[in-house]
């Protein structure tokens, strides 16, 4: 019998991409996408279920559909997209409900895959230059994002400990670059002048968006167990990243920058969330040899991810952004999936 | 019910492994790296420029002389351990310069993480081979990558001591460097340095100023009195002599999480004793501070 998978955050960039990747593999017999808003990409055969961000209906859903795998792609690691209140609800309460449903008596779930972030390690001068999965932060979390990811991962670690018969994979992704994805880093790199904190030139590591989707699929297919860092090989200084991306450095004060940046970010000119400000001073590097040993091959190095991003940006500046062609129509999707009139599905 | 399932499996097994929805592997990109900064933030090009600029200081100003240089391994990891002296110490760049230009292999300088948080200084320090002294960093650098690293176990207590205490080695921390060498499975190579104390003697310290500046200490040096602000960067041309002692290997299993505290402290004290002894030996035969 094929596997039955539930993917959270089906309306987001990552959930949509993961579902599309899983759809190509017939061994995943049933794919359910859970999301609050309409999906942003078309699904071939996955079913979309609307649910609020904290997954209060998940319990019923797991029992009714007897899924064996949950792919939790909806941990928010970009604080510029949601309020800190919502961040807590999504990351902590959402994960809590998800794990409660997965671990409920009679649950058929055997595999949980979580998309987390290397932001959990923070960024400080006391850090080791290369974090391994066993490393801990050098100090307490300083921003809301880091705090909520720490809390969510603590819940996941407890769940893994309480359920030794279920495989639980936590993938910590480095900062992502890739076509179609916008984060504070990509927005800054896309500008003619990119902020640099005076006197600092930190080393950063990236993972390409395709590699993120492939790693999640790899973890789902092979039912990985444990915590894995996922980041492209090598790391490069911020100045070099800016140069490859075709931007120019825009020096910003490195002390009291939060205060000084506030008017600029309020005006929408530059944005430097707390975790990015730390990153642009001290950088972060992780060792991703553990996931490579499970047979996962990266397609992009860190520098390669930056170059791919630069090429995509050049293409877009020449052609303009492609218009978003897909709009989710509930009735149409239901028709194609369930109407007896449809002779060939998928 | 079994039959159709099996035929399905057969049908699909004939196909290629389905790729995720991301298309075929992209053409390998040209190497997009533009700088040669490694994972430690070190740039060989920056080091080369540094060495060119520093060569006259090394050979003309300090007239550095080595003894037992061939005890430094030409390959494989090793932890160089030296005494630390002189308000703004020249010993680190001198040792790194000497080994790099004669052996042609990089030396990383382990130092307090404090440097990383100082604008400009931190970046320059890192590009020229400075690494924050953390056990994880050292284990990766020495054990996994087989590099040479230089460490001053006295830390800031060495250079901040006043001239009256010259050449009396301070406590060697908590023996962390021994643990690092044991865990990485590399030898400790003790170095005794003389001349560094006279290059920039500390007359007294001003803790209040240090507090305001946020630096670990603020020394008032003889150089400062003799040359004014220039004395902050210009050391006196004392003759520097560096003696390499026999490498010490530890008969323990590498890679352990912890080593017996008593063993670590004992070894640490032994290395400190050896360097202290050698420093005194070298001072006994030194006729002149300036000419050796």
Offer a quick outline of the entry.
The complex is a heterodimer of chains A (346) and B (292). Chain A is an alpha/beta fold. Chain A is 39% helix and 18% strand.
The major sheet of chain A is characterized as:
7 strands, parallel
**Total E-strand runs of chain B:** 9
The major β-sheet of chain B equals: 7 strands, mixed
Integer average pLDDT of chain A: 88
Q: How many discrete domains of chain A?
A: 1
- The CATH homologous superfamily of chain B: Glycerol-3-phosphate (1)-acyltransferase
* CATH superfamily annotation of chain A: NAD(P)-binding Rossmann-like Domain
Q: Pick out the low-confidence regions of chain B.
A: 1-24
Q: How far from one another are the termini of chain A?
A: 19 Å
| Most extensive chain interface and residues per partner | A-B, 47 and 37 residues
What is the global morphology of chain A?
Answer: globular
Continuous helix count of chain A: 12
| Strand/helix succession of chain A | EHEEHEHEHEEHEEEHEEHEHHHHH
Q: Report the β-strand fraction of chain A as a percent range.
A: 15-25%
* CATH architectural arrangement of chain B: 3-Layer(aba) Sandwich
What would you report as the Rg of chain A, rounded to the nearest angstrom? 20 Å
Low-confidence runs of at least 5 consecutive residues of chain A: none
Please give the CATH class of chain A. Answer: Alpha Beta
Name of the CATH first level of chain B: Alpha Beta
Structural class of chain B: alpha/beta
Q: Element order, helices and strands of chain B?
A: HHEEHEHEHEHHEHEHEHEH
What does this protein look like?
The complex is a heterodimer of chains A (346) and B (292). With 346 residues, chain A is an alpha/beta fold. Chain A has one domain (3-322): NAD(P)-binding Rossmann-like Domain (Rossmann fold). Chain A contains twelve helices and 13 strands. In chain A, the strands form four sheets. A seven-stranded parallel sheet of chain A has the order 3-2-1-4-5-6-11, sandwiched between helices. In chain A, strands 7-10 form a two-stranded parallel sheet. In chain A, strands 8-13 form a two-stranded parallel ribbon. In chain A, β1, α1 (13-23) and β2 (28-35) form a beta-alpha-beta unit. In chain A, α1 (13-23) crosses α6, α2 runs parallel beside α3 and α3 (84-102) runs parallel beside α4 (144-162). The two termini of chain A are 19 Å apart. The model of chain A has no long low-confidence stretch (mean pLDDT 88). Chain B is an alpha/beta fold and 292 residues long. Chain B has a single domain, classed as Glycerol-3-phosphate (1)-acyltransferase (3-Layer(aba) Sandwich). In chain B, 39% of the residues lie in helices and 13% in strands. Chain B is built from eleven helices and nine strands. In chain B, strands 1-9-6-2-5-3-4 form a seven-stranded mixed sheet, with helices on both faces. In chain B, β3, α4 (121-127) and β4 form a beta-alpha-beta unit. In chain B, α2 (44-61) packs across α3 (91-103) and α5 runs parallel beside α7 (176-184). Chain B is globular, with a radius of gyration of 25 Å. Mean pLDDT of chain B is 87; it is low at 1-24. The chains are: A alpha/beta (346), B alpha/beta (292). The interface between A and B is large, with 47 and 37 residues.
């Amino acid at each position: 019998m094929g596997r039955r998978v539930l993917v959270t955050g089906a309306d987001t960039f990552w959930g949509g991409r993961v579902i599309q990747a899983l759809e190509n593999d017939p061994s995943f017999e049933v794919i359910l996408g859970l999301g609050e808003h309409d999906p942003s990409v078309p699904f071939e055969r996955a079913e979309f279920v609307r649910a609020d961000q904290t997954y209060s209906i998940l319990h019923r859903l797991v029992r009714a559909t007897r899924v064996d795998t949950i792919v939790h792609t909806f941990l928010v690691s970009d604080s510029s997209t949601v309020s800190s209140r919502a961040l807590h609800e999504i990351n902590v309460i959402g994960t809590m409900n998800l794990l409660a449903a997965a671990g409920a008596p009679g649950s058929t779930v055997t595999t949980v895959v979580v998309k987390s972030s290397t932001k959990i390690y923070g960024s400080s001068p006391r850090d080791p230059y290369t974090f391994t999965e066993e490393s801990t932060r050098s100090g307490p979390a300083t921003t809301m994002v880091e705090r909520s990811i720490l809390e969510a991962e603590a819940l996941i670690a407890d769940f893994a400990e309480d359920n030794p018969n279920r495989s639980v994979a936590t993938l910590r992704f480095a900062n992502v670059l890739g076509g179609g994805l916008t984060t504070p880093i990509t927005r800054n790199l896309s500008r003619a002048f990119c902020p640099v904190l005076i006197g600092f030139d930190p080393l950063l590591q990236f993972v390409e968006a395709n590699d993120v989707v492939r790693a999640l699929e790899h973890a789902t297919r092979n039912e990985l167990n444990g915590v894995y860092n996922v980041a492209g090989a090598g790391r490069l200084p911020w100045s070099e990243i800016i140069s490859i991306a075709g931007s120019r450095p825009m020096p910003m004060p490195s002390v009291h920058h939060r205060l000084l940046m506030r008017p600029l970010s309020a005006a929408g000119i530059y944005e430097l969330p707390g975790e990015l400000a730390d990153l642009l001073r001290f950088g972060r590097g992780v060792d991703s040899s553990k996931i490579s040993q499970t047979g996962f091959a990266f397609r992009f190095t860190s520098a390669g991810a930056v170059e791919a991003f630069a090429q995509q940006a050049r293409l877009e500046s020449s052609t303009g952004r492609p218009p978003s062609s897909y709009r989710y129509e509930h009735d149409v999707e239901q028709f194609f999936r369930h109407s007896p009139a449809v002779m060939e599905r998928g | 019910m079994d039959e159709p399932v099996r035929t399905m499996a057969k049908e699909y097994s004939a196909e290629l492994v389905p790729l995720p929805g991301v298309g075929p592997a992209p053409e390998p990109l040209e190497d997009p790296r533009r700088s040669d900064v490694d994972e430690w933030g070190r740039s060989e090009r920056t080091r080369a420029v540094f060495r060119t600029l520093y060569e006259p200081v090394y050979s003309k100003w300090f007239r550095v002389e080595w003894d037992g240089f061939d005890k430094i391994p030409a390959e494989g990891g090793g932890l160089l351990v030296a005494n630390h002296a002189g308000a703004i110490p020249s010993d680190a760049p001198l040792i790194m310069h000497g080994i790099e230009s004669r052996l042609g292999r990089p030396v990383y300088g382990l130092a307090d993480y404090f440097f990383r948080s100082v604008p400009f200084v931190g970046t320059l320090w890192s590009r020229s081979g400075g690494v924050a002294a953390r056990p994880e960093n050292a284990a990766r650098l020495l054990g996994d990558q087989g590099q040479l690293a230089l460490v001053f176990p006295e830390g800031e207590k060495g250079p901040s001591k006043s001239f009256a205490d010259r050449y009396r080695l301070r406590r060697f921390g908590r023996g962390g460097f021994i643990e690092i060498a044991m865990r990485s499975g590399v030898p400790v190579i003790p170095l005794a340095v003389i001349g560094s104390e006279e290059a920039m003697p500390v007359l007294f310290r001003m803790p209040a100023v240090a507090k305001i500046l946020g630096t670990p200490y603020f020394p008032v040096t003889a150089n400062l009195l003799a040359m004014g602000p220039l004395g902050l960067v210009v050391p006196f041309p004392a003759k520097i002599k560096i003696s390499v002692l026999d490498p010490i290997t530890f008969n323990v299993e590498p890679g352990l999480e912890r080593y017996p505290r008593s063993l670590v402290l004992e070894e640490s004290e032994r290395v400190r004793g050896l360097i202290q002894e050698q420093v005194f030996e070298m001072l006994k035969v030194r006729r002149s501070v300036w000419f050796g």
